[in-house]
C-alpha cells in the first residue's frame, strides 16, 4: 500500500488496533485499543494502572496492527516509540477523537471529561516503520 492507502485503511470505519508491548518479565502483551490517527501519530488512551501503562513506563517500544476481517485481506503494522502524557489537553483531544470515531452518539466533550476524571493518560506513537499490504488471500 502507498502511504495514502494505509492512512485511508487505518481511518476507515471503527476497526480496533491491536498493540504489542513487552511486559516487565519479557513476555509479550497484545491488547486491542480504540485509536485515532492524528497527523503523523497514532494515539489512544490508557486507563490508570493498566498493564499497557506499566509496560510503557519501562519500555516505550510499541507495535500496532490493523487488519481486515474479510477477503481480500489487508493489514497495516506500525512500529514506533510511545510517549505517555498526563497533560489534560492531550487526554481530552485523544478522548474526543475516540468518541467521535467509536461513540458518535455520545457527546465527545462528555467522554473526554470522563477520561480526565478517571485518571486516563494519552499515548502517542511516533512511527518508525510501516508494513502495509492489501489484496491478500
Structural class call reads alpha+beta
Please give the domain count.
Answer: 1
Q: What is the CATH top level name?
A: Mainly Beta
| Inertia-based shape | globular
Which homologous superfamily in CATH is the superfamily?
Electron Transport, Fmn-binding Protein, Chain A
Integer average pLDDT: 96
Low-pLDDT residue spans: none
Output the CATH topology: Pnp Oxidase, Chain A
Taking Cα atoms only, what radius of gyration do you get, to the nearest Å? Answer: 15 Å
Beta-strand portion reads: 35-45%
Give the strand line-up of the largest sheet.
2-1-5-6-7-4-3
Total of helices:
4
Assembly annotation: single chain
Largest sheet: number of strands, sense, barrel closure: 7 strands, antiparallel
| Second rung of CATH, namely the architecture | Roll
The CA-CA distance between the termini, in Å, is 16 Å
In helices, the fraction of residues equals 25-40%
Strand tally is: 7
Helix and strand pattern: HEEEEHEEHHE
Write structural notes for this entry:
With 137 residues, this protein is of the alpha+beta class. It has a single domain, classed as Roll (Pnp Oxidase, Chain A), CATH 2.30.110.10. Helix content is 31%, strand content 42%. The chain has four helices and seven strands. It has a seven-stranded antiparallel sheet with strand order 2-1-5-6-7-4-3. Strand 1 (17-22) and strand 2 form a beta hairpin. Helix 3 (88-102) crosses helix 4 (108-118). This is PPOX class F420-dependent oxidoreductase. One of its GO terms (molecular function) is coenzyme F420 binding. It comes from Jiangella aurantiaca. Keywords: Oxidoreductase.
